[in-house]
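Project standup — Tuesday

K.O.: blocked on the structure for the chain from last sprint. Re-posting the sequence here as requested.
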Amino acid sequence: MRLFIAVDINEELRTAVADLQKKFKDKTKKQTGIKWVNPKLMHLTLKFLGETDEGKIDDINTAVEIACKDKQPFEFNFAKVGTFSRPARVLWLGSEKQNENLANLARDIEDTLESLGFEKEQREFNAHLTLARIKDHSAGRLIQQIAGDFAKVNLPPISVNSACLYKSQLTPDGPVYTLLNEFKI
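H.V.: unblocked you, prediction finished:
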């Protein structure tokens, strides 16, 4: 089964993200090659585990519980729009600076799961929500231009008070996420 660990976002932020996406869509109406992520499916990924043997779930639960147990709830603000790659392949929403509480949570989850054989991410943790995936070079160039207009945004914060283990099933209609466990912070 395909698994990942994430922080859920609240409905207020989902609504604000949908409004932000609409502004981008209005500026890219005739452009093809852009796949917008449904805000109802958005989450802040802390660790993607990929295909995982079902027999490891109990160990994963224990590891994530250990990583979360000494943490305190905190708030996180999304305040910046950016892109990955040139031309853009991903349009994302992130923060202006690294949130130490979130980075520590992700690092501790990463460390505890490494002991179970999950490969440690080599890149620095970059907290973001994926707004769109771009398949076309001309769409990527356009999205990069438009992203500059939205470099800074004022959106509602999220309260980070848990991390969640999800199962992801890919279907022709898009991914289906099933909550397997929630770990309080």
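K.O.: great, moving the ticket to review. The chain has one domain: 2-184. The chain is about 30% helix and 35% strand.
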